[in-house]
Specification:
By secondary structure, this protein is mainly alpha-helical. It has a domain of about 110 residues. The chain contains three helices and no strands. The longest helix is centred in the middle third of the chain and has 68 residues.
Length: about 180
Amino acid sequence: MPEATHTTSKPKPTVTPTPTQTAKPASEPSSAAFELPKFEMPNFEVPKLEVPAAFREFAEKSVSQAKETYEKMKTAAEQATDVLEDTYANASKGASEYGLKVIETTRLNTNAAFDFYTQLFTVKSYSEFVELSTAHARKQFDAVTAQSKELAALAQKVATESAEPIKGSVTSAFKKVA
């Protein structure tokens, strides 16, 4: 049988916690530990220099010339924008007129073709067929010639009207320069 040993326990000494141990648990960092150090901005005194009058006049003259140049460029840009707007408006108006004329021409030619085919069904002899075909071909040739002249004249008119604002703008620009 093993021998039993007897141990006596001694009383433990009392420990009082320090102020840092009682303030906050270790899991919560204090904000004071993460504050940035405070620095003061150094004062740099700029020495007062006297700028010569020639330099001051040159700077003022340069600034006034830059302002004048800016105003001229701004005016020129606004005029160019107006010219482009006018040109675009004229071109789109002319293009729609031209498109409508093409549609009208196509409608007339289609109607003429249907009329011709309707008349072909009434033909009783080969000579009537030749006569009707010849008359239709002549009539269509004249119509297509007239339509082509109209479309060419309209295209020229559109081009002239579209270029007119640009031409006027360039002319006035050269007059200003001269």
